[in-house]
Amino acid sequence: MLPVASRASDYFFRPTANRLRLTEVSCITRPAKTKMAPKTTPPTVNSSDEPREVTRYISPHMTAMLWGRAGGRCEFAGCNLPLWRSPVTKEPVNVAQRAHIYSFSCDGPRGNAGVATDDINSVDNLILVCPICHLTIDRAPDGGRYAAQVLQEMKARHELRIEIVTGINAELRSHVLLYGANIGEHNSPRLMTDAASAMFPLRYPASATPISLGSLDCPTQDRSDEFWQMEATHLRSHFSRRVRERLSSAEIEHLSVFALAPQPLLVLLGTLLGDITPADVYQRHREPPSWSWPVARVTPEFIVRQPATTDGPAALVLALSATVTPDRIEAVLGPTVSVWEVTVDQPHNDMTKSREQLGRFRAVLRTQLDRIKAVHGQITPIHIFPAVSAAMAVELGRIRMPKADTPWHVYDQVNARGGFIHALSIPNGD
Q: Is the peptide bond before 381 cis (omega within 30 degrees of 0)?
């Protein structure tokens, strides 16, 4: 068993009956190199009490174990260099070096105090590195800031990552779908690296190149009527060419969706995806900033409210990321509007915190839509006022049943235009 980094003490090994005994003595220094006469007899085991150096020999078995656990890459944190080819010419060549965490000699970097002879060249005391990183960790006579514990932690993190990545089943491949459009005066991020990190380890990208939709850096802002028409047209066109055709040919079997755009466009994206396409929808979190789902969070229960009268036009209000007061809806549809609402006790803009919460949202919303259709009729449009997270807006569109649901008119809050405005319509059959 290798010790975790401890104080520098000086030891040598004395053989006893059938085991090695650790004894504290003055440090053994490397002898000066001298020309040795050729041996005429085989070497014998030193059975005396004289201290001896540990051999540098590392067996092929240990080397193979180290390469496998390191995945053939430099284990120094942040390097990850492939060690099976030249970093310059890319020719196949072994550039790996097997560095000792505890030195093979007691006066080497980090010493070997307290380490059994058999452990010096074991896989647990070796770290696979590139030549530059090897020089870095052994530059100081005592190892400097690259103490044994630091190198042990680097090795453990790297080898755990290799084990997880290489253990992923091929069925967990997923194509990354990125969608972004201008939100006010801010551009949406389209970061493949963040997406891949959020998917891991449940899924991993099927391709190094994401499927990108949307029209970033669009000069038209979302306060104009032209914005909605232009972005909706672009989205439908890009989705048809970049996604639908590949779904039809079974080239794409699963999608991981990362979308950040005005909510009506996210709803439209959801309707294009539909509920048949296997997909995971991710949410960009504000605190801490990340696409990854938090490990454990308590999420609020949904509150469903029905209107007192149902004589006026049907409005579905989703007040989850912000409070939506009735007067804002009446300003658009008049005082007789029938407001159907889904909300939470304290709406806020960072409430979507788990996959399970999205699943509950889908179930609650599907029930509410069925109730509205039963009361208002099959052909009566539903006016939708979303104040939800990006992931919820996409899921709202995904639960739509094109042949069964009534037409949707989707609105968006645009402060520059005084409140909610009609953004786009989704007719029967879409």
A: no
